[in-house]
Design goal:
- α3 (71-86) packs parallel to α6 (175-184).
- It is globular, with a radius of gyration of 21 Å.
- The chain is 34% helix and 27% strand.
- It has two domains: 1-190, no CATH class; 194-291, Arc Repressor Mutant, subunit A.
- By secondary structure, it is of the alpha+beta class.
């Protein structure tokens, strides 16, 4: 009896060691906006983001809001969906993959028991975190709340010694993200060194990737602080930016601080002081970056 195309695709995915070919790919909206917290510590308070006409509300799961490290799974899943569409396949909403290949793509050569445990916890946060936003995808706006993963199921294999090993994962990305990938197709490749970066560095890379296609951009430090989703003091962000600039840590982009005297002001005791505005300049190291 002949197998259905959907079953054939799933079996071939199980058999292949590396279902994802080429670079990791991300959808523009989840690159541009701060949907994920920057800390690995559990964030158990709701988050609200407003900028221009964009609004985002985020509710935590019982274990906290999904983090920038949890986002790795979403990027991997989005990459598989985008790859299927680019290859002319009919992409199912359900995505099945091996945990082994996810770790390979994200640079974990020999995943430990702790890595697998964190992987499971990340799936729970992605499914448990609730989002409401007026950002439209596929010419539609979801008025209600949604989770990054509508479904997440994990298959374990029982070994001879009784241990259970995580093998395969089946997830269903939310309609909001699925529409964005399939219909809007604003897909950007990620540099492989992205997974070596810290959380704020990852956000800087994503913002640069979204806005530097036409050349250098300058962003006011206060606006960048908001756009990154940083909850720490702006002074700490400025110090980190100086370190990133000195060590040239971002792949594909240069980051530098630019301070401009914007006038004078009078302090509380009548002294005249110069007003200095700090901006962050990002520019691509290459003339063009493929998206």
């Amino acid at each position: 009896m002949a197998k259905s195309p959907a079953i054939a695709r799933q079996i071939s995915l199980f058999d292949m060691d590396s279902p994802l070919h080429g670079k990791v790919r991300g959808e523009r909206s989840i690159m541009d906006y701060p949907f994920f917290v920057l800390s690995k510590n559990a964030h158990l308070e709701p988050i609200e983001y407003k900028h221009d006409q964009v609004t985002i509300q985020i509710r935590p799961s019982a274990t906290g809001v999904a983090t920038m490290w949890d986002k790795e799974i979403l990027l991997y899943v989005a990459s598989l969906v985008a790859q299927a569409i680019a290859d002319g396949q009919i992409s199912d909403e359900d995505v099945t993959f091996s945990a082994h290949d996810f770790f390979r793509i994200t640079g974990v050569e020999r995943p430990s028991v702790r890595d697998y445990r964190r992987f499971g916890e990340a799936l729970e946060r992605l499914q448990g975190t609730q989002i409401k936003t007026n950002i439209e995808t596929g010419s539609k706006i979801d008025r209600g709340w949604f989770s990054w993963l509508s479904e997440a199921q994990v298959e374990y294999e029982k070994m001879a010694n009784g241990d259970e090993v995580l093998r395969y994962v089946r997830v269903r990305p939310c309609n909001w993200l699925y529409r964005a990938i399939k219909r809007d197709q604003r897909i950007y490749h990620y540099h492989h060194d992205y997974f070596r970066l810290g959380a704020i560095e990852r956000r800087l890379y994503e913002i640069a990737h979204c806005y530097c296609e036409a050349g250098p951009i300058d962003i006011n430090l206060e606006e960048l602080h908001h756009k990154i989703g940083s909850m720490g003091p702006m002074k700490r962000l400025k110090q980190l930016l100086k370190s990133i600039e000195a060590e040239n840590r971002l792949p594909e982009y240069d980051v530098s601080l630019v301070e401009v005297v914007s006038g004078e002001r009078t302090d509380s005791i009548g002294r005249r002081r110069k007003s200095v505005t700090t901006s962050v300049r990002m520019k691509p190291r290459q003339r063009s970056i493929s998206a």
